[in-house]
Amino acid sequence: MPPPDLQERTVAAVFGRRTKFGALNLTAFVAVLAALTIVPVVIAFGLGRAMTQRAPDLSGAYLLLIESTPGESPLAPDAVAARVREYAEWAHQLREKNLLVSAEKLDDGEVVLPTGSTAPLAAGDERIGGFFIVRAADVGAALSIARESPHIRHGGRIVVRRIASGAR
Amino acid sequence: MSDERELARAFLAGDERAFRELYGRCTPALYRILFRLVAGRSDEAADLVQETWLRATRALPGFRWDSALSTWLVSIAINCLRERQRTTRMAIEPAARERSAVESHEHRIDLEQAIAALPDGYRDVFVLHDIEGYTHEEIAQLLAIEAGTSKSQLSRARRALRAALNGRSQ
Known about the structure:
heterodimer; A: alpha+beta; 4-stranded antiparallel β-sheet; two-stranded antiparallel ribbon; B: elongated
């Protein structure tokens, strides 16, 4: 994965802007300031939640790993927005039926090798774009949930794995 | 995908968002290739990505679009890398690489380390062909070599990797 600051450095270089202190990038400055302010709040909030809330009971839950569609060209921004709305609607329906435990989209990442060094994600790793954790009576019910996903309609794959009971 | 031309045109008219879109589409793969070509030195790979974009944006008005933008960027990146290697290559570097390979034998060699220990020419062809899926003809264009040279270097690279990995298991 390219370093997170590389895009801004490159944009600045291409557009002939300086990013050093002499010509401070206002957007970046505001972002850093906001981050410095928000991070302690988020940490405190997270700690508070961890101390006062129990983690959800995942026994009998299933992990639905969303894999990207092989060979699909990158979508135009409008199409991405439409796709996100579709998935959000599906997640909303699952939540209404009290079937949804958690759902997250995965962003870029890196791989830690057995030597401890890191490497960019390989093509296979990049395929996993997100996950849903759902409650289902059995694997058949979990597979039915997966089949109704908009992801299947768009030609993607979903890996369904039962979360082992007693894992915690 | 065909709107890369549109994005390029918009960028040349000064549209920063268009550039960011092109950057977002092409950079992950470009960085991945460079990361492997420079044997996992992430800072160097990042510098080369930036240099590649700088040169590409200057040369973009003359780009004829007779290859994919991503392929063109890789060819520019390889030129940047070659120039850097010519001007900064230190005598110590090959020795260091060999030493690293020997040390790895003593501890552990994984495929990434074995690739990093390959001589530059072998590594370039191996990464572009076996990892990134370029054909020998494309590699010949990218590296300004004959397709036959690409094939023979790939075969030597695979032999060297096999030897390195066999060394681990013994």
